[in-house]
């Protein structure tokens, strides 16, 4: 009876260690990339006016080449020049 309990305890410890290793690996990958893993979203722009941004957005939306699109929005932080951008998802 004690042997069975020992086996289940060893199994529980082994499974727990496996879960911790898997979590540590994912956390390490996220830390190495500076936070969350970077998605495959790309900004297109800048455009000086929203109307010009929307005309290019419409062309890409109708082409059907991209898995996802985010509509035109104003963006001007960091290394990006202020202006209107839309975003494409390329897996």
Features:
single chain; 91 residues; alpha+beta; three-stranded antiparallel sheet; 3 strands; flat; disordered N terminus
The biggest beta sheet is recorded as:
3 strands, antiparallel
Cα-to-Cα separation, first versus last residue: 54 Å
List the quaternary state of the chains: single chain
Integer average pLDDT: 71
Number of helices: 2
Q: Tell me what portion of residues adopts beta-strand conformation.
A: 15-25%
Based on secondary structure, the structural category is alpha+beta
The dominant shape is flat
Compact summary:
By secondary structure, the protein is an alpha+beta fold. Helix content is 49%, strand content 24%.
Give a topology summary.
Elements: H1 2-32, E1 41-47, H2 50-63, E2 68-75, E3 83-89
Antiparallel strand pairs: 1-3, 2-3
Account of the 3D structure:
- The chain has helices at 2-32, 50-63, and strands spanning 41-47, 68-75, 83-89.
- With 91 residues, the protein is an alpha+beta fold.
- The chain has a 3-stranded antiparallel beta sheet with strand order 1-3-2.
- A hairpin with a 7-residue loop joins strand 2 and strand 3 (83-89).
- The model is unreliable at 1-33 (pLDDT under 50).
């Amino acid at each position: 009876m004690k042997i069975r309990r020992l086996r289940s305890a060893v199994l529980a410890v082994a499974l727990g260690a496996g879960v911790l290793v898997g979590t540590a690996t994912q956390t390490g990958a996220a830390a190495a990339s500076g936070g969350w893993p970077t998605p495959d979203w790309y900004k297109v722009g800048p455009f000086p006016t929203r109307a010009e941004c929307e005309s290019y957005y419409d062309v890409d939306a109708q082409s059907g080449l991209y898995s996802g699109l985010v509509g035109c929005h104003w963006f001007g932080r960091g290394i990006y020049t202020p202006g209107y951008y839309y975003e494409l998802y390329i897996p």
